[in-house]
Specification:
Layout lengths: L6 H10 L12 H7 L2 H7 L3 E5 L27 H7 L3 E7 L7 H24 L4 E3 L3 H9 L3 E8 L10 H7 L2 E5 L25 H13 L2 E3 L5 H10 L4 E6 L13 H9 L3 E4 L3 H4 L6 H20 L3 H17 L7 H15 L4 E3 L19 H9 L4 H22 L3
Parallel strand pairs: 1-2, 2-4, 3-4, 4-5, 5-6, 6-7, 7-8, 8-9
Helix pairs in contact: 3-15, 12-13
Amino acid sequence: MIKHLTLGASILALAACSPSDPKSDPVPAAEQAAVATPAEIHERLIVLDSHLDTPANFSKPDFDIMADNPSKLGQVQVDLPKMKRGGLDGGFWVIFTPQGPLDAASYEAAKNAALHRSDEIIQMVESHPDNFELAYTADDAARIVGDGKRVVYQSIENSYPLGTDISMLQTFYDKGVRLIGPVHFRDNQFADSSTDLEANDYGGLSPLGEELIREANRLGMMIDGSHAADSTVEDIMAISTTPIFLSHTGVRALYDHPRNVTDELLKKVADDGGVIQINAYGSYIDDLEPTPERKAAIEAIQEEYAEAMKEGLTDEQMAEFRERYEAIDAEFPPPMSTFDVFMDQMLYALKLVGPDHVGMGADWDGGGGVEGMEDVSFLPKVTARLLEEGYTEEDLEKIWSGNMLRVMREVEAAKEQ
């Protein structure tokens, strides 16, 4: 089954073709666009998101990727029924590892956890071969979508599990990883983080981080600058032979948060051929003030786990921490940003660097989502809004997948043969 042949387009095509030659007199593209609704345009695009934290849910006993799970903002937002309703064809499914101590034992534990998460992604796909397929190249996306399946690329958020052994990157590449982010919430062995404000250990990439970038170039892996300090992003662009990719990032001009990028840096990313995928994590795009009760509850749990976090939470501690945090969310719901605020971010980036350098990376199941776009079933609203703003279907094709796949093709072409 080939996706994106809409009813409206089908009727027009039938009216324009003779019975003896179904391919004769095709309907001009301009005429099709004139009658297509936003929903029809959205449905015939390849729609990919570059940051799906959904694999974190695979080990939960009450989560089923095939079921229409109850939505939880920032936690349960992606499953097959929601993807179908939202026209989401897939994207990068994330192997995330929290930052821990920089020692041999912790590196080994992180490596094992990351390998296990990759195995979970692969197992999910293998368990549902009629609905999902692993993707390894840019060209895989159109083929998989054409077969009526969802696209599963793998990415690493935080290279901490590699330890100090850069050769481990080959292991993850062989398992299907095609996007690598050096750093997460805290500085690590590879780079400075945008949110580790206590110290800037290297002023960008460490020497080991420079090795990481060169090895990613050699293998043909895209490099993710989200979560990286501005200086780290600059270093990546200076060293990498391929464009940088910001898988889930916002613009600082609209909200001054260190996770966002300045206009100057975003222009450099675009000049480098790179892409920013706009984040929908409320506290990164909006000034959200929690209630005093929520603030106190969060501070209490953070203080309780502070020492354990410095050493790195065990799997049991992490599960317990998440359970208690979810209980806080239930009792004292977090303040939410809105769909309009998210769209302001996207429209600002589009105006600044153009539709060749902007895409979607909402941080689904990792904290993303806003009022009016609570899960992936709401994605057609983005298409409708962009059309209202005057962007064309060609622009939307780039925003929804074309830009990401273009960078991937450049990376593939530049890899060591």
